[in-house]
Amino acid sequence: MTPETVITFAQQAIRTTILVSMPMLGLGLIVGLAISIFQAVTQIQEMTLTFVPKILIVLLALLFFASWMLNHLIHFTVSTIEQIPYFIR
User: Closest Cα partner for 31 from 9, 56, 10, 14?
Assistant: First the structure.
C-alpha cells in the first residue's frame, strides 16, 4: 500500500463524511442563525429557544435525506470493499 493510496482513501473518506453530514449541519446552521437574528431583534435571551427548533429541523433533515445518505454510504463501503485486493498488493 503506497502513501498515495492511503492519502486518496483518506480524501475519499473525508469527502464522504462531509457530503453526508452537510444537509443536516447546513439546515441546523440556517435555523440557528435565523433564531439568533430573531432573538437579537426582539431582545429575547432565552437559551432553550434555540435548541428545540434546531433539533426538530435536524431530525426532519435526517428523515428527508436518509435514503440519499444511506445510498452514498453504501456506495463508498462497496467501493472500499472492492478495492481491498488492490490495497493488499
Answer: 56
Distance (Å, whole) CA 28 – CA 35: 11
Contact (Cβ atoms closer than 8 angstroms) between residue 58 and residue 17: no
Please give the torsion angle defined by the CA atoms of residues 8, 4, 79 and 25, in that order, rounded to the nearest 10 degrees.
-20
Rounded Cα distance, 9 and 1, in Å: 11
> For 8-55, what is each residue's pLDDT tens digit?
999 999 999 999 999 999 999 999 999 989 988 988 888 788 889 999
Q: What is the pLDDT of residues 63-89, one digit of tens each?
A: 999 999 999 999 999 999 999 888 787
> Is 49 buried (19+), middle (13-18) or exposed (0-12) by CB count in 10 A?
middle
Which amino acid, 29? Answer: L
Task: With 0.70 as the threshold, say if the pTM is over it.
Answer: yes
Q: What is the DSSP letter of 33?
A: H
